[in-house]
Amino acid sequence: MGNNYLIIALVFFPFAAGIGSYIIGRFHQLARDVFLYFALALELTGACCLFATVGTVDSFVWEGFASLGLHFKLDGFHISMSILASFIWLMTTLVSKEYFKGARGTNKYFMFILFTLGAMQGVFLSNDLYTAFIFFEVMSFASYPMVIQNETEEAIDGSNSYLGFAVFGSLVSLMGLFMLQSILGTLQIDQLIEAASHVTNYALLYVASALTLVGFGVKAGMFPLHTWLPQAHSVAPAPASAMLSAVITKAGIFGIIVVSCNIFLHDAQWGLAIVIFGTLSMVTGAILAVFSNNIKRTFACSSVSQLGFVIIAIGMQCILGEHNALAVRGTVLHMFNHSLLKLALFMGAGVIYVCMHTFDLNKLRGFGRKKSVLWFVFGMGLLGLAGVPLFNGYISKTLIHESIVEYIGMMPEQTAFAGLMQTVEALFTFSGGLTLAYMLKIFVAIFIEKNPDNQAKLDAKKTYMSKLTMGVMIVSGVILPIIGTLPYWTQDLLADTAQGFMHGHAPASPVNYFSLINLRGAAASIAIGIIVYFLFIRVCLMKKNENGIKIYADVWPSWLSIERMIYRPVLLRLLPFASALAARTIYVAGDTAVRLFRKLLFFKSKDVFTPPTNHRFGTYDAPVQPKRIINKSLAYSLLLFGVGVVAVMLYLMIINAS
Amino acid sequence: MSAFFLLFLPVIVPILGGFGLLIARFKSRMVRQIYVGAIVIVNMVLSLVAIFAAPKGQIVTLVPFTDTFSIALRLDGMAAFFGFILCTLWVVATFYSFEYMKHEGKETKFFSFYTMSFGVTMGLAFSANLLTFYLFYELLTLGTLPLVMHAMNPQALYAGKKYIIYSIGGAAFAFIAMVFIMYYGVSLDFTFGGILNLTQIVGREQWLLVVFVLAFFGFGVKAAVFPLSGWLPSAGVAPTPVTALLHAVAVVNAGVYALVRLIYYTFGTVFLSGSWAQYVVMSAALITIVYGSSMALRTAHLKRRLAYSTVSNLSYMVFGLTLMTPEGLVGGLTHMVVHSILKILAFFCVGAILYKTHREYVYEINGFGRKMPITMATFTIAAIGLMSIPPLPGFLSKWTLGTAAVYSGNPLAYAGIGVLIFSTLMSALYMMQIIFKAYFPNKEIDVAVLTKDVRDPNLFMTVPFILLSVVAIVLGIYHQPLMDMFSNIAHGLF
Predict the structure, then answer these.
(1) Cβ neighbours of residue A536 closer than 8 Å, sequence gap 6 or more
(2) Which ranges in B235-275 belong to alpha helices (H)?
(3) Which chain B residue is nearest to residue A592, measuring alpha carbons?
(4) Which of A64, A138, A571 sits opposite B391 (nearest CB)?
(5) Quick one: CA dihedral A215, A216, A219, A223, positive or negative?
(6) A658: burial class by Cβ within 10 Å (0-12, 13-18, 19+)?
(7) Considering Cα of A52, then A56, then A59, then A62, what sign does the dihedral take?
(8) 3-class state of residue A619 by DSSP
């Protein structure tokens, strides 16, 4: 089979376009913007064209690239992810022009977002963990300038932890990949199942895969490696946050899927571990989001939580084994729904920031009143994210929820395992409720409450975004209810296309999304959400300030951060100190040996070697300033000795030659 | 041309040329630069001709002492590979030093020894047997000593003393091994797979292992292996071209090269593999890796930080060698190439900072990123490469080393992967600290005042930077021929 050059073009075109845009931007800003739109539209078209080539030539192999070669392959999932990435890049770039108006260094920024896009395509189209890893690394580093773009103290701090986690994760993954390569003999994704079935030493395979998972888990914000995510996503420029949240985190999910659905296809133990980590991320993210008073931070924490839902779905795929159709479809759909939701929400946050230069909920109170487009986008985001029926998040959450319920139903009697799964189910519903609660907190503050200080000034801001931005916002907002109300014509098609990658099958009968039992699950979540909002957020998280006005108080204790308490001290202080101490302790032995050796060699002249009093070899009288280098130094004598040796040798050679 | 001239000329031309420089009095700086440049370039051409045209494996005897005991040169795969790295990087470094040495002074003396060392290292590369190797190894110590002591201030003299004591002392250990090999080996000529007479050593294996360990640590001095690595950070007081070329490439790689010759061509992996000696030497390499990279993070002086980084990186190679498998050798050699290019680049950049601004500490380079764009950009490439981020070549060597370690099945090698990863993490920290400082200065510092007269150096320096970065990137993406060659060397085919 030949090579599909469209794939490689999709991967490397953004790199070329990035350099191109940088050069153009040096001369003309507007020309660069047009070039960017054009390049990204082309990329999106190219990604859509991939569908046309499926079935004929659907792979690309570049043997010998970086020794193991590059392997790309097409199937529905790969292509859908590639289209998603291109789409989100195009949308966010369209609003970037307004967001970055007057900012410095945008040229560099656009170059790096294009590089990141190229690397994203490399990850999503790869058919090889090695290829995926290479592009994953390029992506981590190319996205770093995006995060640090603002160059404020917080931005530098946040992006440092972004980079720190990325490097840590990738190194651990690398170790896992070494082991997988030696255990399985291949890293090609479509050969993993076959290779894994021959493995005898299962314990080692678990270790190797768990290590590999760390790097991907970091990107997917998996607990306890999530701490960088709220920081980095909230300090990055809003369009960059949209990309990070909507797409780059999915690269991590992609890796988790590859490991879980190929190496551990239908392996319940592995699945259980994944479910537990997913549940922890889901709950942690949601709780953090409830406490946050910074809208972008809330969205970022929400990403951790929503990705937790996806990770649970991946785990359920493994647990359910052959009957995992619901979980498979839930995984795919929630990935896509989350991306679209976060695109809309982060762009909304960006629009607010352009006007107000803050993300603080207290300062933004009442900003959204009488701003219908913004209201619409945030409203759709709220309803979709909270899983309200008729909106997109409902469909995928229902699928995941049903897969858990189905598994509980399948179990014959009460066991510890069943109890665990029931806990997961309860936490699932609870986190769904928290989702509604934190979204309500934002929505009520911005769009319903009045600003206690200057409501009139906020209301006066009529033109708060350009026509272009408004168009983009409306498009991203309108998609959400459409795919939510018409799941059979939109979401199901997507699921059908993509499920092959996870070895899933279509369910025996189409899922009735709007059946009574499913609606009841959603209703339970919504009820919990409303209770939490009114009884917890409005009561405990709002305090009266000195003027007697209720504000959103920052109740979360600032010291309570895993990163500041554990990760940073361990990595930056303890680890280098301990290892240097250990190594130095061992070194003392070596140094002693050397000192002994020196003493033996120069036992008469103990202080000869202590600079700076007397620093020449073998001399004991008062130091004389050397006029020429050929004085009394031992080094020079040795050198001359060397010269003599060479001379003698040359002489011998001449004798020998004659 | 006969094999004799092909191999002998690259060794003798720079040595004589260096002497010429000491004797002749050049009227102007320019004439001397041209003379040095000509010698170095001519010698590069001679070396390349030798590497590609000389008959492989033919021994050229220079001085026969007895039938089995002689000074002789020979070209084999290892020699060709090592010679190639040396002769190409030497030229780059020479052009860099033309500019750099302006501010150090005593240039005639410097360039004469610098050129002589070129010949000596080529001799080291082409050595056919242990005796010749030993000779050139000692000559290298002596030839580079004046370079280390160049500044002739107390620190430089101290560093020089430390260097010579460690090196000569180490060589003494290696000498013991030579004596034993003369007795227990079939000959002194390097042969892939070892030259021990396996029937003769029956019953004396333990003694030979002890001798091997002694020789390992003896030759290991130049490769900065625990516990005798102390000289390398101290020698950082030498002029930057010396630290860059000799202490990141020539001298230290000569140490690694010596260990290759010792493990794979003298004692042989069949004899050593699985013995306690292997565990001893591998642990030494691992301890050095941890030590070097942790110390680098705790050192604020830029050149010393890189020197500690070199200590740890050299032991990556040594770790690869001590796996005692063909894959391990491939990993070690790959890292030798990769590290040479990246570290010489990193040192050059730091040297350029020192040369242009006289700043030598990490905390002094706030905001240099925008003022020295080429220097810092190329430094970033080197740093990211050393952090082993694909597609830069550091990743390639880490990958080959890691897979080799897993394939070897040695339990200590698994620990070794952990150590490699720890060290990479440390290198990410110590390298990124520099880059952060340069690109994202502290807000409270008035960068504009601090970096008023900071700018990129001239073309003598920046061209080598760009050349090396390009080579690094290309090597990271396309390296199949190189890997094939290593694989051939490691299986004794070349």
Answers:
(1) A290, A437
(2) 240-241, 251-260, 269-272
(3) B227
(4) A138
(5) negative
(6) exposed
(7) negative
(8) coil
* Inter-chain residue contact B402 with A174, CB threshold 8 Å: yes
Among A213, A427, A203, A418, residue whose Cα is nearest residue A305: A427
Calculate what percentage of chain A has a pLDDT beyond 90.
0
Instruction: Say yes or no for a CB contact (<8 Å) between B402 and A175.
Output: yes
Closest residue in B to A647 (Cα) is B16
In a mutational test of the B interface, the residue from A161, A171, A183, A634 whose CB has the highest number of chain B CBs within 10 Å is A171
Flag residues of chain B having pLDDT under 70. Answer: 1, 442-447, 449-451, 494
Using the 8-state DSSP alphabet, how is residue A482 labeled?
H
Letter string b/e over residues B378-412, b meaning 16 or more CB atoms within 10 A of that residue's CB: bbbbbbbbbbbbbbbbbbbbbbbbbbbbbbbebeb
What proportions of chain A, in percent to the nearest 5, are helix, strand and coil? 75, 5, 25
Distance between CA A586 and CA A572 in Å, rounded? 22
A597 interaction partners in chain B (CB closer than 8 Å) = 165, 169
ipTM over 0.90 threshold: no
Contact list in B for residue A67 (CB cut-off 8 A) is 396, 399-400, 479-480, 483
CB contact under 8 A, B109 and A629: yes
Of B109, B146, B424, the CB nearest to A171: B424
* pLDDT tens digits for range B249-285: 888 899 999 999 999 888 888 888 888 999 999 999 9
- Apex CA A589: angle with CA A587 and CA A593, to 5°? 115
pLDDT at A313 over 80: yes
Cα–Cα distance between B9 and B23 in angstroms, integer? 21
Q: CA A193, A199, A202 angle in degrees (round to 5)?
A: 105
**Element (H or E) spanning A124, and its range?**
helix A106-124
Instruction: Round to whole Å and give the CA distance between A324 and A328.
Output: 6
B250, burial (CB in 10 Å: exposed 0-12, middle 13-18, buried 19+): buried
For the entire predicted model, the pTM comes to 0.79
Gap between the Cα atoms of B163 and B228, Å rounded:
10
A65 touching chain B per CB within 8 A? yes
Q: Which of 91-150 (A) contact B at CB < 8 A?
A: 133-134, 137-138, 141, 148
Q: How many CA atoms lie within 13 A of A191 on its CB side?
A: 12
Instruction: Tell me the two tokens of residue A89.
Output: 């890049």
Q: How far A183 CA lies from chain B's nearest CA (Å)?
A: 9
Q: Is A516 on the interface with B (CB under 8 A)?
A: no
Min distance B227 CA to chain A CA atoms (Å): 5
Look up residue A621 and give its DSSP letter: S
- Residue with the bigger pLDDT between B146 and A411: it is B146
User: How many Cα atoms within 13 Å fall on the side-chain side of residue B320?
Assistant: 29
Q: Is B427 exposed, middle or buried (0-12, 13-18, 19+ CB in 10 A)?
A: buried
Percent of chain B with pLDDT over 70: 97
State which amino acid sits at residue A335: M
Q: Which residue of B has its CA nearest to A134?
A: B390
pLDDT at A605: 47
How far is it, in rounded angstroms, from Cα A116 to Cα A139?
A: 5
- The pair of structure tokens assigned to B264 is 């794979």
C-alpha–C-alpha distance, residues A119 and B288, integer Å: 35
**Residues of B with Cβ-Cβ distance to A630 under 8 angstroms:** none
Q: In 3D, which of B479, B392, B475, B486 has the Cα closest to residue B82?
A: B486
Cite the beta strand spans of A414-565 per DSSP E.
542-544, 550-552
More confident residue, A629 or B159: B159
